[in-house]
Amino acid sequence: IMRRVSCLKRLASQGGKRSFVCNKRGASFYSSTSSSGDLEYNKHKGLLTDLDIHPDNKGVNISGGEFFGNGPTVESINPTTGRPIARIQTASLEDYNKVITATDAAFEDWAAIPAPHRGEILRQLGDELRKYKNPLGYLVSLEVGKILPEGLGEVQEFIDVLDYSVGLSRSFSGAILPSERPNHTLLETWNPLGLLSCITAFNFPVAVYGWNMGIGMVTGNTSLWKPADSTLLCSIATQKIISEVFKRNKVKNGAAGLVCAQGPEIAQALVDDERSKIVSFTGSTHIGRKVGVQVAKRFGRSILELGGNNSIIVLKDGNLELALRSVLFASVGTAGMRCTSCRRLFIQSEIYDQFVPKLIAAYKQVQIGDPLQPGTLMGPLHKQALVQNYEDCIKQALSHGGKILYGGKKLDNKNNTGNFVEPTIIEISHEADIVQTETFAPVLWVIKVNSFEEAIKLNNKVKQGLSSSVFTEDHKKVWEWIGTKGSDCGIVNVNVPTSGAEIGGAFGGNKETGGGRESGGDSWKQYMRRGTCTINYGKQLPLAQGINFGS
After folding, report:
1. Which of 23, 50, 125, 489 could make an SS bond with 418 (beta carbons 3.0 to 4.6 A apart)?
2. In angstroms, how far is CA 158 from the centroid of its own chain?
C-alpha cells in the first residue's frame, strides 16, 4: 500500500510539471547514444527506480536469471520531447539462441505442472502487476506517448487477462461425443503445442504480450517475447516482474524469455526457427503477410493481428450524443494509433449537416499536449516517421478531392520538440485510394451515405476487417448488422466505439487483418493442439461405417 501511495505522489509531482511541447524536427527514433547528462532519466527517476529501470539497462532475459545483452546499445526516446530516456543493450544473435534454447528446454517442466497450479502462478503475477500498475502505466505513457489513463488501462488489461487465465486453468476442455460403435467413446483432448513466440507492436507494449502470454502459458506453453524496438523499457520492466514471480515459485528458468533487439535479423530468426511452434505477430499487413508465409512454409502456426480500417456508421435513428462521444474516443484516442481506431465515418444524409458541425466542435475541445499532464486527451505520435505519414496521407487526400473540415497541421513550437499533430477530419469520397488503406494517424474520413444498406456495403468494401460499429435504435437493423448480410469484421459493435474491447471476447479480425484471435472467447484453442480419441472398452472390434473386414 505504501508503495502505491508513493507512486501516486510521484505521478502527481512528476507528471504535473511538464509543459506542452510540439515537434517539427525530423529524427530517427533511435539515435546514437548520449551521455548520462543528456538523458531524461532523472526527471522520472523515482518511478523508474520502482520498476528497476536504470540509465543503462540490459535487454535480454531468461526468466529466473539475470538480465544480459551483447548486441548494439540503443536509446528509448520520449516522443513528447524527442529526448532519450535511458539506454538499452540489446540482444546479439548468440543471445537470441541462448534464450530460445532455454525457453524450449523449459517447456516439458512447465507443461507438466497441472493447469490449475499454472493458473495460481499467473494469479500471483496479476497481483504483482497490481502493485506496480501506477509506475508501469506511467512508463507506458512516457515511452509510447499515450495519455496516462490509457497507460494505466493497458496494465489493467494485462491484469484482467491473467484473471481470465486463472479461471481458464480449470475450465478449458474438449468435447465427449457419441460413438456409432458399441462400447466405444469418442472424445477430444487439448494439449500445449510447445514454445510460443510473441512479436509485439509499439502501440500496446504491455497488453498485447499479456493477451498472448496469459492464455498461452496457462494452456501449458512456454513464452518468448520479442517486443517493438521503440518501447524496450516497458518490456524490460514487465519482464522483471514476470521473472521475479516465476523465480519465487521455483519455475524452471526460461519458461518466459525476453529478447530486445534492433533491426530485422533476430525477428527473422525467430520466425524461421522450428522451435517456435506458435508465432504471434502484431503489426502491419505488409510484414504480417511475410510472417504468415514463412511460418506456414515450416508448417508452424501463426496468430496474426494486422491492419484495421475500421468504420462507424451513424444512422438517423441512432442516439447522436452517444455516437458523437464514441466517434471522438475512437478516432482521437491514442492519437489514432490503435489498430481499432476509427478511420472511416459513415453518416446518413438526413443528419449529416447536423452531426458534422457537432463533431468539429468536439474536436476543437480536445486538449493536446504532454500525455502525463492531467486533462490531456491526445499526446504525440510515437515517432517522427508517423508524423511524416500523417502529412503524406493528408496531401494524398487533398489530391483526390478531399476537403479538410478540421485540423490537418503539424504542431510546431520554438523548441522543435515532440511529435504533435492536430486531429483531423476530412470529407472525401470512399473511392479515394487513401481511404482504402490503414493510415495509423488521427485522420478521420467523413463520408455521406443515403442508406444503411449502402453503409454496410462500404464498410465491407475495404480489404481489412477488424472492427466496426453502428449507431441505431432499430432492433431489426441490429440483427441485420450482426448477421450474414452485415459487417464482415471480426469485431461487430452496436452503439459503442470501434476501440476499447473487453478481454472476455475473442479479439481479432478477418481478411487482411490476419484472421488471428487472442484474449477471450475460445482463443485458447489457437495455443493448443487438438486430439480426437476413440476408446474401445469392449471385447469386440466393430469398424466405423459398418465395414466388414472379415473374421
Report:
1. 23
2. 11
Q: Is position 321 annotated as part of the catalytic site?
A: no
For cell 514471480, the residue is 245
Q: Are 221 and 257 in contact (CB under 8 A)?
A: no
Question: How open is the CA angle 56-61-62, to the nearest 5 degrees?
Answer: 160
Length of the chain: 551
Q: Is the pLDDT of residue 512 over 80?
A: yes
Confidence band for 4, pLDDT divided at 50, 70 and 90: very low
Q: Which of 75, 143, 150, 305 is catalytic?
A: 305
Please tell me whether residue 476 adopts helix, strand or coil conformation: helix
**For range 301-317, the mean pLDDT:** 98
What residues does 226 pair with on adjacent strands? 199
Strand runs labelled E in 360-420: 403-406
Amino acid at position 74, single letter: V
124/117 Cα distance (integer angstroms) = 11
- Strands 256-259 and 222-226 come out as parallel
pLDDT confidence tier of residue 509, bands split at 50, 70 and 90: very high
Beta bridge partners of 60: 68, 259
Sign of CA dihedral 476, 478, 482, 487: positive
Task: State the pairing for strand pair 256-259/60-62.
Answer: antiparallel
Whole-number Å distance between alpha carbons of 381 and 378:
9
Q: Is 441 in a helix, a strand, or coil?
A: coil
Residue pointed to by grid coordinates 463520408: 447
Q: Rounded to whole angstroms, how far apart are CA atoms 411 and 107?
A: 50
- Residue 357's contacts (CB-CB under 8 Å, 6 or more residues apart) are none
pLDDT tier for residue 386 given thresholds of 50, 70 and 90 = very high
**Structural contact between residues 260 and 227, judged by C-beta atoms closer than 8 angstroms:** yes
305: annotated active-site residue: yes
pLDDT band at 417 (very low <50, low <70, confident <90, very high): confident
On average, the pLDDT of the chain sits at 93
The pTM for the full model equals 0.93
User: CA 330, CA 496: separation in Å to the nearest integer?
Assistant: 9
Largest distance between two CA atoms of the chain: 93
Catalytic residue among 22, 260, 339, 342: 339
| Block residue for cell numbers 474536436 | 363
In order of 165, 336, 470, the CA distances from 320 in angstroms are: 37, 22, 11
